[in-house]
Amino acid sequence: QVQLVESGGGLVQAGGSLRLSCAASGRTFNGYAMGWFRQAPGKERELIARVMWSSGLTYYVDSVKGRFTISRVIAKNTMYLQMNSLKPEDTAVYYCAAKMAVRGDFGSWGQGTQVTVSS
Q1: pLDDT at residue 25 above 90?
Q2: What is the spatial distance between Cα 64 and Cα 52, in angstroms, rounded to a whole number?
Q3: Distance separating alpha carbons of residues 30 and 40, to the nearest angstrom
Q4: Burial grade of 67 (CB within 10 A; 0-12, 13-18, 19 or more)
Q5: Helix (H, G, I), strand (E, B) or coil at 67
Q6: Longest CA pairwise span in the chain (Å)
């Protein structure tokens, strides 16, 4: 397990931008991947973006493609989510998570950060 600490949420108007950060603490992160999930009120938590830690390969859910960018800085043990052209439907609690191996689920989670997009 690894400890994950998120920062960067807040309130923004539609069309605005926010950047979320997720820092892995305690030891150098050498897992398989990290990802960003979100959970809107009344909805299930969904994976919206993922980055393979070693290669940097990325995945995005269709609803955020072209607007959100996931990245990582290995030397800082930190992952980012740059969110542009935000929409009210992006309002949710955003969580970062880490997956240590190819098999298995995301097993380490951040505390979550609220993102609210006003219309």
Answers
A1: no
A2: 18
A3: 30
A4: middle
A5: coil
A6: 41
Name the nearest CA neighbour of 34 among 72, 83, 82. 72
pLDDT in tens, 87-110: 999 999 999 999 999 888 999 999
* H helix or E strand, kind and range, residue 38: strand 33-39
d(Cα 24, Cα 1) in Å, to the nearest integer? 10
Task: Quote the CA–CA distance of 43 and 7 in Å, as a whole number.
Answer: 22
Residue 96, C-beta contacts closer than 8 angstroms, at least 6 positions apart: 4, 6, 20, 22, 34, 35, 36, 37, 79, 81, 109, 110
Residue 39 corresponds to which tokens in the numbers above? 């959970």
